[in-house]
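re: ur question from earlier - yeah i can do the single chain one, its not a big deal. heres the input i used so u can compare w yours
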Amino acid sequence: MPMSATGISTSGPMVVSVGRAAGFTLLELALVMFLIGLVLSISMPRLGNFVFHTDLKSVARSLKSVVYVMRSKSISTNTYTILHFDLDQNLYWGTAAAKTKQPSDTPEETPVVSSVKLPPGIRFVDAGNINSVKKTFGVLSSAFNPKGMFEETVLHMADRDENVMTIIINAFTGSFMIYDEYVDVEYGKE
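and the output i got, formated as tokens:
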């Protein structure tokens, strides 16, 4: 009788086992579903915090690119550029001081960066710079001079779960320091 490599006869009548059918019992399926539900219930709150915290970091990255654009524009055109933060509407935008022909002309601002609204659930908590007190409402404006130096600015943002992020924009380089907590920085008093 020929044998296979596993030692099973390859000729002869085929024997089919009559007994338990292949598949899973209802109890096995219920146990697996329970374990999946348990894992999801433990991980979802942490995953939710991760998703919203990622939104704060995304806003910080977007703001960082706007600061670099504003600084570059200020240096390349030898003009003042101004970054505005509307704390009531949760917007920020950038403008450049227009060059005037007469010294007596009132300088107008031309848009450099169009208005950007913070994503739903993200808001400004407060903001301040080296030349003003901390504001919790209204508009804060921070300027780049023609050499690219900035009025050091501190922003606090929060998400729906009150996770707070602090962004400090350096006066000389425009670089960012980002903290995953509320860092209180006090500047001048008006």
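Helices lie at 26-77. not sure if urs matches, ping me
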